[in-house]
Design a protein that fits this description.
Elements (H helix, E strand, L loop, with lengths): L13 H12 L4 E9 H9 L3 H18 L5 E8 L1
Helix pairs in contact: 1-3
Length: 82
Amino acid sequence: MPFNTVAENTFDLSGLRRMIKIAQEHNIELVLFFYPRHAYSLEMDNQCGDQDTYWRAMKQIASLIETEAKPDQVRGLAILQL
């Protein structure tokens, strides 16, 4: 099932937006860590029809970083636990 882009599927990223702005103002590198999710957890999401929620959030976070942060200012780390 492709990502659903309707407004009800957007996440509140105002806190992240503020963090990026503060990091820019103080010339600080911001490193984001996405806590690992076990493959079984992702499979349960898939079975329940919620498989794209996690990836929609990641996509929106990546888009926000791409549009609002300097290229070398923010790094994101995501690990999938198998």
